[in-house]
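Summary for the funding panel

The consortium committed to producing paired sequence-structure records for every protein in the target list. Below we show the first two records in order, beginning with the earlier of the two.
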Amino acid sequence: MGATVAAVSSNGEYSFTKPNRESIRLLAGLGVEGDVHAGVTVKHRSRVAQDPTQPNLRQVHLLHEELFEAVAGNGFRVAAGELGENITTRGIDLLGLPTGALLRIGDEAVVEVTGLRNPCAQIDNFQRGLLKEVVGRGEDGRVVYKGGVMGVVTVGGVVRPGDGIVVELPEGPLWPLERV
């Protein structure tokens, strides 16, 4: 079985979690229609405070459903949309993708992966101790981000649970994801 969309979520108001939807519409260059983080320039509050003219490299948040199973082993219960993601995936190594990978989702939509999500302290407000589950240290001591990836919409379209996801790697050298 290939990679699929497990759930889609959006919220028009600032809130840590996003309710699941039957579908979401991705808008080229903007993000998820009606979502508070949609736009050409940054919408995350901390980034707006730094420089509101920065390009929005975080239009769409994708998170792998397998993370929910991993954290459940340590006593945490997390469901689709609860960590603020727009697209919950199944069967794809999001964290192993290179910068610039294209995700062809469903019949039309294309999302270009821009980097790793940089989880914030709000995760511990949601469930105390969960932040340590999604940000850790590798054997080499480097920080490991497990909270999914961020992307920009290059081709719009409707995305629904059950839609397939096809990965297209960029040409040339492959660069590992960094936090955005």
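The next record, for a separate protein in the list, is shown here:
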Amino acid sequence: MGAETRAPRADATRNRDHLLAVATRVFVSADTEPSMRGIAREAGVGIATLYRHFPTRESLVDAVYRDQVARLTAGARELLGRLPPAAAMRHWMDLFGDWIATKNGMLDTLLAMIESGEIAHARTRTELLAAVTTILDAGRAAGDLRSDVSAEDIAAALIGIFTVAPRPGHEAKAGRLLDLLMDGLRPPARPAGPVGHGSP
């Protein structure tokens, strides 16, 4: 009986994760908010299945939003576990771009939920800044990133970049601007010592 109970639960989790992934992809590519029916169709399920997991548009938007924030916060630690800090920072910037792009198709609902207090925007900002700080601290300790840059500086720069080069559609431009930002985050090269000092 225990195995039978676990199997449906695992199936339900897989189905929910699939719906979440599809909804995220649809929100990224949409110019306006897609219908719940359109998301269900894209996922290859009936509308009743979508509503069983996410009874309202708000519950779906909330789940996608929280999933993306979790990926950003956990992503900082995961990236540092396998990459030098500067490389981890550059990859994290791409994750941030994905998060910004996800808002394309859910902006009206998201803003209404923030306005009503259903989503704590201030807490999200704190979590994201903490993720950036984690990478910055590792970079400073390794001599990989400048010590005079704050998480707020990086967040402001990223918002500026993805405003002028929104994704999808401007990936190449965004990538170039992010690479330029990374160049500015690296410590300046120390000047070489005087040549021939002490020579006759």
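Regarding this second record: The chain has nine helices and no strands. The first helix runs from residue 2 to 29.
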